[in-house]
DNA sequence: ATAATATTGCAAGGCTGTCGCATTAATATA
DNA sequence: TATATTAATGCGACAGCCTTGCAATATTAT
């Protein structure tokens, strides 16, 4: 299935690029200049994830956040860095700190989701 | 507000103790012998969290899982250990591995939520 | 026993995310 | 340029998770 260029895709990518942080579907919809259906935004976001352009983080509110991370299109497919969710400004950003853990024998890790919650530099 | 002893509270604690792992409201409700309202289970679980008896983990499905962890009533209030969610048996368990990270200056971390997803020892 | 109030059940509602289906629009082909 | 192919979208609907208000119940203290 070959991807097509659409206004929706560019608009979503544009918002995420300018934001420089992870955003929820809702936040993206509010920031986007054109009117795009909710389901469509989700589909666009998930396609971007499939294509390795975005990565998805689950925050402590149980919601999905999507980020365009500069360190993501590297060798490892997994996004093994920490994320920080500020309870004040609701921002979710990627941290430079890499996740490292030891796992008991026999376990196979396929995905990593690490979110620190608190107050960010700007809001402190 | 002083807590009261109720059959619901004991039943919930009992299930979680026997399970020895983190469980969702739904899973708890299914395991519980008596019939308890969904909202009530949530209220009981959240009260236990407030009282420091349980801790809550958000998994990659966006759902809340509650665990009675043996290492939790220690000095630190935060539950800074990794969790492992098996995609096969759907189990979410606490790992012995402690979470360690470096955080940029000015950030205040109040909570940690780290979940590894994959296949556990039993299902591999 | 009685009062005070924490806990519960019920119903309802909000929010998130997904899906099927008809329609539209982007790309390839003639 | 016109046409065919099919990816992408909008709409509506739905399921699931979690919370909340309110009246009824049950636990604890007096």
UniProtKB/TrEMBL annotation, chains A, B:
Organism: Winogradskyella marina
Family annotation (PANTHER family): HYDROGEN PEROXIDE SENSITIVE REPRESSOR, ZINC UPTAKE REGULATION PROTEIN
One Pfam family named in its UniProt record: FUR
Protein name per UniProt: Transcriptional repressor
InterPro entries found in the cross-reference section: FUR, WH-like_DNA-bd_sf, WH_DNA-bd_sf
Domain of life, source organism: Bacteria
């Amino acid at each position: 299935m070959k991807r097509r260029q659409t206004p929706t895709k560019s608009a979503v990518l544009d918002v995420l690029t300018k934001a420089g942080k992870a955003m929820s579907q809702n936040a993206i919809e509010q920031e986007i200049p054109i009117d795009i259906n909710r389901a469509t935004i989700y589909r666009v976001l998930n396609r971007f994830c499939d294509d390795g352009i975005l990565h998805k983080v689950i925050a402590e509110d149980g919601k999905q956040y999507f980020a365009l991370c500069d360190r993501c299109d590297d060798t490892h497919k997994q996004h093994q860095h920490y994320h920080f969710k500020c309870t004040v400004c609701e921002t979710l950003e990627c941290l430079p700190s890499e996740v490292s853990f030891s796992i008991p024998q026999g376990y196979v890790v396929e995905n990593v989701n690490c979110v620190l919650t608190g107050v960010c530099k700007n809001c402190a």
